[in-house]
Amino acid sequence: MLPIESRAVFLALAALYRIAWDCRHAPAPPSLHLRALLAFLYLHGDGRREPFDRFWRICQTPDPEDELERGRTAYMRTSYSMTEWEGIRRAVGVPGDIDTMSAIRALAHRAGPKAQGAGPSKL
What we know:
123 residues, mainly alpha, disordered C terminus
C-alpha cells in the first residue's frame, strides 16, 4: 500500500492526465478543481512553476471558428497539455516507467480491474 501522501499525488496526477486527455474535445474550463489539482501537485513538486503555468494556459486554449483550425487547435492543445503533464509528473518525482504510466492511464480512464486500486508500489 502506498503512503497516503504518495497515493494522493498519484490520484492528482491521474485526474490531471484525464483533463489533458479530454482537451482533445474541448478546452478545459478554468475551474477550481483544475486550480486545486495544479496547486496540490506544485506543493509536492521540485519548485519549478513553469510546467504548471503552461498546463493551465494551454489546456484552456479556445477553439477557433474555422473547422480546420479547430481540429489543429484541439490536436495542439492535447499534445502540449500532455507534454506539460509529463513535466509535472517529473517535478513531483513520479517515475515514468511502464507500470506506473499504465496505472495512471487506467485510473484516469477508469479502465481495467487495476483502476480501482491502481498505484505502483514503488512510489
